[in-house]
Amino acid sequence: MDGTLTRMGRIYAKIVNFSVVTRYFLYVLPLALVLAVPIIVGATAARKAQIGGIRIVWLFTWIEIVWLSLWVSKLFARSLPRVFKFVVGVVSSGVRKYALVIRALEIPLSLVGWALVSLLTFTPLMLRNPDTPSGAALKPWMTIIRQVLGALLVCFLIFFGERLIVQLISINYHGKQFDAKIKENKHMVYLLSLLYDASTAQFPEYCETFAHEDYVINDALNLSGFSKKGSGKGSGSATPMKFLHNVGRFGDGVTSVFGKVAQEITGKQVNIGSSHAVVTQALEKNRACEALAKRLWMSFVMEGNETLFKDDIIEVLGPSRSEQAEECFASLDQDGNGDISLDEMILTVTEIGRARKSVASSMHDVDQAIKVLDGLLSTVVFVVSVFVFVAFLNRSFTTTLATAGTALLSLSFVFAATCQEVLGSCIFIFVKHPYDIGDRIDLSNDQLTVEHISLLFTVFKRVNTGKMVQIPNIVLNNLWVENVSRSKAMREQISIFCNFETTIEDIEALRNEMTAFVTDAKNSRDFQPEIEIEVVGIAEMNKMELRIECKHKSNWANETIRAARRSKFMCALVLALRKVPIYGPGGGDAALGSLGQPTFSVSVSPENALKQRDEFSAKKEAKRLIPTKKAEERPETGATTGTDYSGNTANAELRAVQSLNTRQPGVDRGRDDAWSSRDDASASTLDERVGDRQSLEEVRGLLHRESTRGRRPQNASAVALTPIEEPQTPPVTALPPMTNTYAPPPANAYGPPPGATYSSPPGNAFAPQVQRRDVPPPGSAYGGGVPPSAVPKGPYFPG
Known about the structure:
Elements: H1 7-18, H2 20-43, E1 50-51, E2 54-55, H3 56-91, H4 99-104, H5 106-127, H6 140-177, H7 179-202, H8 211-217, H9 238-266, E3 268-269, H10 275-282, H11 286-300, H12 310-317, H13 322-332, H14 342-393, H15 397-432, E4 440-443, E5 446-453, E6 457-462, E7 468-472, H16 473-476, E8 481-483, E9 491-499, H17 504-518, E10 527-537, E11 543-552, H18 559-579, H19 606-622, H20 648-660, H21 669-677, H22 696-703, E12 771-772
Antiparallel strand pairs: 1-2, 3-12, 4-5, 4-8, 5-6, 6-7, 9-11, 10-11
């Protein structure tokens, strides 16, 4: 058999798929006609035919009602969400979101309606038909059937209540946790799309200036991931890779042509080559995020400049878009110092991509936890249903219940710990929810990154060693969880011990030096301008303890950036301590017996000893910025720490400090591995996960090429852009787990408004790219990109 449909099969498929009406008729009519035969026979040819003392016409009439009521109940449950939305929406538009819950409860509602109709029609048809004398009692078999129908109704009501609880947990949880994150991230993608439109208007795609960046941005096939260190130049590998890139460009062009044809037919515009589609595709990979950030930054910055200012964006977008330009600049200027560097731009764009992946992965994992909870509650419903049937059918139910209760009481000691763990885990995940996927948290003294969330446990990765750690949620429920990713700007305190003879003027000089360091233009992006130094202890008057407090301009979620900033600050502190100078406890004095502090003996005369000691003291005093014997007033400003050393030694030290503190701004080793590890769905929870990240030298080569200055010509004028209209996003309500038994959201929170046509760019599983015909130009919708394996399929994230 080749598996192809026959002519009859094709006719059947056409009838089934023609409409809902034809499909339901095809399902209902065959059995309904079969059941109608005994009714017709009992009403005409065999009027006295009976089954169990009841004429077959009434018995099969009830069976026919049972069969038809199942489908009528299903149709009623299917249309109930629309009726609810129409009626209740007039009173309160915020209540209409619960129509999604009713839609997800279609099957439980259908079963409840079916059982109710079957129970209510059984007794009247059996006892109140024209052939049964008045006052007749139910026969034994009728009593059993009525008890079974009553038990079924109660069981279906319990099943309906269980599904309703799960739906309310899902809809309230998602609306509480992800609504603000999704709205903020979609708005950021909209702003990036606006900037990309302006960038391509000045420098068309694949132009000579940004050809390399455009190949990386539009790398849907991830061809850049196949390149190896040291390859690509002179090896001949660039030619086939470029050819495959061009094949992808040709495919996008063909798709755009079909999109224009669809536009003429449907009246809706679909364009996968729009700025929005390109941006969302680029946000899938860190390498593409870095290339996108570099293209945007260099196309807006004036030639010869090294920073992006608000006036640059206003000048490119034009005075008519000044408000949007100011909004774009404010969203990208994370440190608020009035300009944007290339590293800052890369960091912001990569964080937008990570935020999208975090939301998608967290929603997927939490929905899996909801699915597990649903399975546990379904087991409880099944056990309760058994007792319901026993209660309806067993006359000595009290005795049976007492026996079963004794057995359950004896087993409660076995399942008590398990029930406590399940309940505590549910409260921890759905009520407290202290973290999401990819968050950097601190548990006691452990620094961890969240890798996977389940109902009963969470998998973390240690920041310092990369080891995978699985911790039960019931244990985490009793711990203090410090979420670094959700924190705002963080501060750091460093304690140092110094010589007790250190003067207050020296401490003030140290504060001035560190203040000059954090207020320097190159460091003001990382640190806030406040430096606090306090004396917190003097021990036994043999040393002083100083506490230096600096304030970062962001949190420490990105371990790579945190390590670079701390190393930079510590290097500056070391240079400042040497420069003042400030010595450690017992330091600064000459060694006993040396020329600076000789011991009196017959080997030298007292005059010579005093002379040598005075010379050492004079040299020591000459090293101070503020002399101890002569209190001179000095301005509280100074050059950046270490910049006023002279000679080759000082320059070499500065170069060493700069090299030591150089980090890749778009790479976060602590969190990026979480996304790559989720691509392998077949791996176990604690399996070894190997990332596919590029070598550090290769990624760094993309960002630190020959030129990192602006490329916008001096005489460039504002570009002509078609207005982009940002669509309104409905509030996030519920996210269905992997099956269709949960309520979908009111609309695709990462997708288009209702009634739009979907079309996703290659590899983009986060959301479709949509435009209405009355909404110009491409790129006004939102979406995102994560690896398809990390995104749940369903109405919320169209596959």
